[in-house]
Amino acid sequence: MCGRNIKGSVVGILGCGRIGISIAEKLANFKISQLLYISRSEKPEVKALSGKLVTVDELMERSDFVVVAAALNDETKFIVNRERIATMKSNAILVNIGRGH
User: Fold this and answer.
1) What does the pLDDT profile of the chain (101 residues) look like in tens digits?
2) What Rg, from alpha-carbon coordinates, does the chain have?
3) How many domains does the chain have?
């Protein structure tokens, strides 16, 4: 199986706690086109990397790669659902590192 080049891609990080911020920092070396993120508030660490705070729906629709790094709680339990997955680009890749639910 051949991989896809992340260079020039739009990457969305759903959940910018400690792990999400670490991922954003590592992505800076890959020359991505745009970094989108979801968080309860704007994260200066991610903004410094040209990250843009967006809605969940915008992140799902615009991203070529979506990384789910959100903690499991009542607010995030069903944040990635069938309806939102249906709005993703047909060739987008979803990576869930946050939880199994």
Assistant:
1) 567 889 999 999 998 888 988 999 999 899 999 988 877 778 888 888 888 889 999 999 999 999 998 887 787 788 889 999 999 999 999 999 976 55
2) 13
3) 1
